[in-house]
Amino acid sequence: MNTRVRLVAFALIAASLLSVFALKNTYAEDLSADQVSRISANCLSIKGSLNQLHASDALLRVNRGQIYESMGSKLMGNFNARLGNNGLDNKGLVVVSDEYQTALATFRNDYQAYEKQLSTTIKIDCSKDQVGFHTALLDARTKRTTVHDDILHLNQYIDDYRSAVNDFMLNFDRVTGSN
Amino acid sequence: MDDEPTVLTQGEQLSFWIEHRFLLLIIGTLVVATILVSISIVIYNVSGSAQLDLSRPGYQSVSNKVDRTDPVTDYSAFGPVNKGTVNDFTTIYDQQADKAKGVDAFNGDPLNPEVLEFGDPTTFAQ
C-alpha cells in the first residue's frame, strides 16, 4: 500500500516536471534556426520597434485612460447620484456603472501587467538569449490582446449604460405621465 | 560611597551617546529617509503610477502629446431631474461616448513576430 502511494506520488511529480519541461521546449521548438539568426541579426531594429511601441502605448494609456476614468466618475457617477438625491430608482444604472468600474479596474491591472512584460522583453539581450526574448515577446503579445479586449468591454458598458438611461427615461415618463 | 562605581558606569554610557549624538542624528535621519523613499518607490511601482508617468526616460518623444485638457464635461450631481435635464445628460454622454469609442485603442498586432520581421518564413509562405 505504502509502495503504491509512493509510486503514485512519483508519477505525479514526474508528470508535472515533464509538462513544465515540454512547455518550455514548445517555445524553443517554435523558434527555427533561421528565426534565431534573424532575431540576432535584427536585434537592434526589433528593440527600436519595441521601444517606439512602448512609448506610444504609454501615451495611449494616459489619454484613453483619462477619458474612460472621466466617463465613470464625471458622468455615470454624477448622474446616478443626482437620481439618488431626488429619491428616484437608479438601481439599473448603478449596476451597469459598477460593472463599468470593475472593467476599468481590470483594464488598469491588465495594462500594468502588459507594460511590465514589455519592459522585461525590452531588457532581454536578444542577440544572446533569442529563445528567452521570443518567449517574453509572445507573453507581452498575449497581454496586449487582453488589454484590447478590456477596451472592448469598456465600450460595451458605455453602450449598456446608455440603454439603461433610456430604460430609466421610459419608466420616468410613465410615472410622471409626461410625453 | 558604595554607589560610586555604578554612577560612573552610567555616566560613561551617557557620555558616549552625548559625544556622538550629532553623528547618530545624521545616521538616524538617513535611515528614516531611506526607508520612506523605499516605501514610496514600492507604492509608485505597485499602484500603477509608474505606467502613467511619461517623464520617465524613454518617453520624452510622447510626453508633450498628452491631452492636458480634460475632454469630459462634468455633469452636476445636484439639481432637479426632469425630461430637460436628462436630455442634457444624454447629449453630453453621447458626445463623450463617441470620443471614447472613436479610437480602437490597443488594436492590431504589432508584437507579432512577422510584423517585427523575424517570423517563420514557412508560415509566410502559407
Q: Could you give the topology of this structure?
A:
The complex is a heterodimer of chains A (179) and B (126).
Chain A: H1 2-30, H2 33-41, H3 43-85, H4 91-123, H5 130-176
Chain B: H1 4-19, H2 21-46, H3 49-52, H4 60-63, H5 83-102, H6 121-125
Structural notes for this entry:
The complex is a heterodimer of chains A (179) and B (126). Chain A is an all-alpha fold and 179 residues long. Chain A has 2 domains: 1-30; 33-176. Chain A has helices at 2-30, 33-41, 43-85, 91-123, 130-176. Chain A starts with a helix and ends with a helix. Chain B has 2 domains: 1-66, no CATH class; 67-126. Chain B has helices at 4-19, 21-46, 49-52, 60-63, 83-102, 121-125. Classes of the chains: A mainly alpha (179), B mainly alpha (126). Chains A and B meet through helix 2, helix 3, helix 4 and helix 5 of A and helix 5 of B.
Question: Which band does the percent of strand residues of chain B land in?
Answer: under 5%
The tally of beta strands of chain A, per DSSP, is 0
Number of domains of chain A: 2
What is the straight-line distance between the termini of chain B? 103 Å
Q: What's the gyration radius of chain A in Å? A: 25 Å
State the total count of DSSP E strands of chain B.
0
Q: What portion of the residues of chain A fall into strands of 2 or more residues?
A: under 5%
Order of helices and strands of chain B: HHHHHH
List the defining traits of the structure above.
heterodimer, A: 179 residues, mainly alpha, 2 domains, 5 helices, B: 126 residues
Summarize the structure.
The complex is a heterodimer of chains A (179) and B (126). Chain A is mainly α and 179 residues long.
